Each structure stands twice: as C-alpha cells, then as structure tokens.
Amino acid sequence: SAALPPPAPMLAFLRPPLCTALRWAAPGLFASFHCSAPRLRPARVAVVLSGCGVYDGTEIHEASAILVHLSRGGAEVQMYAPDVPQMHVIDHSKGQPAEAESRNVLVESARIARGKIASLAKLTTADHDAVIFPGGFGAAKNLSTFAVDGKDCKVNREVERVLKDFHKAGKPIGLCCISPVLAAKVLSGAEVTVGHEEEEGGKWPYAGTAGAIKELGGKHYVKEAVFSLTPFYEAHVDTKNKVVTTPAFMCETELHNIFDGIGAMVKNVLKLTGK
C-alpha cells in the first residue's frame, strides 16, 4: 500500500535543508507542504542613553522613535548609560538649572529604559551588531563636554571606547540630533549630518554645530529633516565608516518628520548589519 504523507505538524519540526531533501527524494509525496526558509538571528542593537530629558539628558521623543523603529525592524535591544553624575540638572518647566540638585546619568536613563538598562562599561561589540546614540543635550553634556568646550571637548572614556570598538569591528553606528559630534570627535574623517549649515530664520537653530563638526575633523553633509524630492526622510550614510546620522530635533519641524527621519537612520543601521 502507498505510504501516507506525514502530517503537517511533523514537517514543522524539520529543518529547511532536510525538508528540501525530502521534497527532492519524493516530490509527489511532499509537494503540497511548505518548507520555511532558514531564519536569521535578529540584529542585536545597543542603545546608549545620556539621562532623561532634552536639556540635560536624552531627548525622550528621539529615544522612543529609535526603539519603535528597532522593534518594527525585528531587532533585539539592550540599553546602556554611563554610571556618572550629570553635568547639571535642568528644570524643564523653566529651562533653567536646578541649583543644589544632582542626578546620576544611569539612574535617570533607567526611566526611559523602564528599568532594563546596564552600565555602559558592560557594553561590548561581541554582544551586539550595532550601536545607536539618541540626541538630547545629554550627549553634549554627559557623554562629552561639547556643550562647554566645543571643538576642544573631551568624550566620556566609555563612550570613546564603544565608538572605537564598533568602528574597528566594522559594525554600524547610528547617531541623531547633536550626538553626531561624538563620531566627529572620535572617528577622524567620519561623514555626518546635523542638517543645515545656516539657521535660515530659526528653522535650524543649532546650525553652528555643522561648523564645529568640521573643526573636530569630521565631514558635514547637508540633509533635510522633512520630505523633499524623494519619498524618504533623510539620513546620511557613511558607507566607509558605517556611520549613519540624521538631523532629528536640530530642525524646528513637526514631530512626525522627526520620527520618520529617525526611521531612515534606523533602517540604514539595520541594513548595514546584514541581518
């Protein structure tokens, strides 16, 4: 008597190469069953935070947009922050320093990470396929001294180590808003964008950062933060150094434009991982 085909659930446990071999050996028997393609391991992405709040830490909308786009891209995410004191604390309702108050960057970053965060000292290239730095003044105050020292700034030791390690390993680095200054300082000759190089009546209030990037040894590329002639919000991809940047809140524009620009950055970072 003719052998009966195995039930579909049984085939679900067959590895794709074996499933293909069975189809080749008995095409009539297995032709009606679907064999899934091999599944690649999802990209593992580290996200480095610098506190909680635009004026003294991570820009929360940017961090959220990055996490949403990474989730949509199927990435596995681990968040990190340096375990150091903040430069200072800003009262965001007044835009002024809160005198006699101090906070820790890792502790504040845990607010965004919903508690699931580790010290930046534990971040290694072996555990991740890419790293992304959101913006916010924390990148210029807590991850570096750019807000105070400009082109003569120093970068946090662990931040510098992470940037150099990922670059050496040929793994992509994503940055948005003000954080591209970190790459410009640490990775000589890196191509980045913070948007435009002129304020244009206040539309690009931090345009002077582009000049500072050049002084740091980086190469600046003018990019839009909003819809232009192509159906994409712009990110700059430095294919040689695998550095991907986008202007985000360097531009005074609607929130959905920021979200979409960050999406372009994340998409290109994931593409460069090859996952």
Automatic annotation (TrEMBL):
Domain of life, source organism: Eukaryota
Gene Ontology CC, one term: mitochondrion
Membrane-crossing segments per the record: none
SUPFAM superfamilies assigned to the protein according to its UniProt record, in alphabetical order: Class I glutamine amidotransferase-like
The keyword Transit peptide is assigned to this record: yes
Stored InterPro entries: Class_I_gatase-like
Source organism per UniProt: Eolophus roseicapilla
Gene: Gatd3b
Compartment(s) of residence: Mitochondrion
UniProt entry keywords in alphabetical sequence: Mitochondrion, Transit peptide
Name this polypeptide is given: GAL3B protein
